[in-house]
Amino acid sequence: MVSFNVPPYVGTELKYIQQAVESHKICGDGEFTKRCNEWLQNRFHAQKVLLTTSGTTALDMAMLLCDLRPGDEVILPSYTFSSTATSAVLAGARLVFVDIRPDTMNIDEDKIEDAITDKTKAIIVMHYAGVACNMDKIMEIAHRNGLMVVEDAAQGVMSTYKGKSLGTIGDFGCYSFHETKNYSMGEGGALVINNPAYNERAEILREKGTNRAKFFRGQVDKYTWVDFGDSYLPSELNAAYLWAQLEKADQINENRKNTWDEYWKAFLPLAESGMIGLPTVPTECTHNAHMFYIKCKDLQERSALISYAKERRVSLAFHYVPLHTAPAGYKYGRFFGKDEYTTRESERLVRMPMYYGLTDVDRGQVIDTITQFYLHR
At residue 113, what are phi and psi to the nearest 5 degrees? Predict the structure, then answer.
């Protein structure tokens, strides 16, 4: 069976985990956590990065740092994972969903401004498949209206927009290192803070409301509870696993891009004949090969393709059910304007197996299965 996903593993993870155990420092903010923070900061030219327990808690921190209050509104796409929405709900906000672009599956930047009200406080953008949203226009809208921008870059580690790393453009950026991501620590994430005015508060929020970070830097002689907080520090064991992969980040990136490129070349004839749609990567974007998908004619064809592939031992997957159609979507928010593309495009999209170390044989089986399905229709 060709698996849909296999968590990345480069071979030095267990060695580093053992080093963490032998250091007798396995809780948060040990040596491996610091290495990961510094690597991410330096590689992406980020002002400050803090590892978190998940991409979800990175989003939670970002929305809490936006100082949302009950009754405030947050604009976001409906085509995203639930974490994008629940982070705003946790902070007390109401959700305002807007339509997506059919080419990139990202939030439609032209639909944002009309959705703004006197209650709007923030915009959450999600960079789908590691392909950037139109950040120039989104940041211009936000600045003109006095709004915060949070980048859900869970899928965007190593991707850029006009040369800038995703996550470093808005007020806050959020990464995920879940086992399904390009770089993994099992469960984990990171918060990117792009305004130094939020550094200290973020550290306090992350450290259960204490100024423990200042204590370890020698800035205070003892630490104490100073504000609201929670526990967002990942285990040093998880950070050790991630560090092994950050050391091999370019190798992983190139391996995934090779698979992405092979899929593209193989499926291009089907796209040119009008049988399927392929991903769009705007010229100002570089992507990280997080995902390769094709678009079927409709939901019925997608279901038939997934079943056909399963019979031939190839795992394909669809993606998000639009949040505004979910029970919690009705409860916590509303869809602004017309759902022209969100539902229609979500029902067409199907994802290919994509992971570090996918063999040529397995990739060939995927390509052959998809090709045969369409040639026989």
Answer: -60, -40
The C-alpha atoms of residue 40 and residue 48 are separated, in whole angstroms, by 9
Name the region of 289 (left: φ>0; alpha: ψ -120 to 50; beta: rest).
Answer: left
pLDDT band for position 343 (50/70/90)? very high
Angle at 205 between CA 201 and CA 206, to 5 degrees: 115
pLDDT > 70: what percent of the chain? 100
Q: Can you tell me the distance from the alpha carbon of 124 to that of 25, in angstroms, rounded to the nearest whole number?
A: 36
Strand partners, 189: 52, 176
Residue 57 token pair: 């808690």
pLDDT in tens, 220-266: 888 899 898 999 999 999 999 999 999 999 999 999 999 999 999 99
Distances from the Cα of 332 to the Cα of 147, 229, 304, 326, 377, angstroms: 20, 24, 34, 10, 42
pTM: predicted TM-score of the whole model, two decimal places: 0.96
DSSP 64-120: HHTT--TT-EEEEESSS-HHHHHHHHHTTPEEEEE-B-TTT-SB-GGGHHHH--TTE
3-state secondary structure 291-341: CCEEECCCHHHHHHHHHHHHHCCECCECCCCCHHHCHHHHHHEEECCCCCC
Structural domains of the chain, ranges and CATH numbers in brackets: 13-247 (3.40.640.10), 249-375 (3.90.1150.10)
CB 65 within 8 A of CB 174: no
Q: Read off the pLDDT of each residue in 125-144 and give the average, rounded to a whole number.
A: 98
